[in-house]
Design goal:
alpha/beta; Carbamate kinase; two-stranded antiparallel sheet; 8 helices; globular
Length: 254
Amino acid sequence: MITSKSTQPIAPKRIVIKLGGSMLERLNENFFNNFKRLQAAGHELIIVHGGGPAINEALAKNNITSTTINGIRVTSAEAIGIVLSTLIGQVNPALVHQLNKVGIKAIGLNGYDGNLLECTLLHKETYGFVGEIKKVNSSILETLLATGITPVISSISCTEEGTPLNINADTVASKIALAINAESLQFVTDTHGIQIEGEVQQVITPSAISNWIISGDIYGGMIPKVNAALDCLAAGIPSVQIVGENLEGTTITQ
């Protein structure tokens, strides 16, 4: 039996939105309205979030110093418990509450839930208790999306033995996007896109990114963002954007 393409069920268009920790208290009515507009147009949305400022504050209160290498937070044995409790106990429920309050059905998740993120240690000697994602078990996400609920995922998981691990949220977002065959991945940051010599670049290519990393024009926390973006493009995700709170900024294309 030959079935024409026109009779095949239309797969929902999926977008993964990664919110930087600094953005969580700056989400405005325009952001929520755009979010609802995308849902009304038939898009299924997933949010992945970090929690840098809240984690920094909690670590400081406990007199624990923290450094970053290549944009990844070095997470000591003393720090991982605070990262865990801050993301799961503070940042995630606050964001879920914001979404529910404006009429967006949302539920909080982390890498533990449904064994969502299977991880190993990235490189303990360098980064401490930081995870490398080996597999995304997306069935729980499929179930929630099918019922119209937005998953809100914090960037924390554990080893097979249960040791908690901090994971770079940009990496979590890219792995989730790949696992659910998202059409787009959006990094929402306070930088309004990639800026070179003070100017936001509207559309850029992977080769330009590579050159700007070498020259030092792209540095710090932007490096894991663009690397995650390049991984997604290489794997077939059509579009990756790095944008500000108004969802405007830089589009990265092949």
